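So, who can interpret the following?
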Amino acid sequence: MRKILVVASVILTYLVCITGTYAGVISSEQVIVQQQSIYNKQQVIEMLNNVEVQDKLVALGVSIEDAEIRIASMTDQELNQLNTQMNDMPAAGGIVGVVVTVLVVLVVLDLVGVTDVFSFIRPIN
């Protein structure tokens, strides 16, 4: 009986020592920084899935695997800097901007009544 009590007390002591956990408060800023880091890394990795990006990397002599390894080893600061630079770059050379500008000018001219390019737009007058 004494052995059972000793074994039970040892097991109970062991369980009490193991179950002692630490519950700390995590600030919202810490969660946001962590999630932003994960998002930045995913955004750059998704960019590598683009065929044009892959072709450009191969033309520069960089394999896709090497690029993925490099992205995985980038620090949060490097990822933020890369994403900022990518977001500041123009999306499509300039042709799309020219086409959109021409369409906007034609719509405005149709609204004013100078032209009649689009039949679904009625002049303001």
In short: The chain has two domains: 2-89, 92-125. DSSP finds six helices and no strands in the chain. Residues 28-48 form the longest helix (21 residues). Residues 2-89 form one domain.
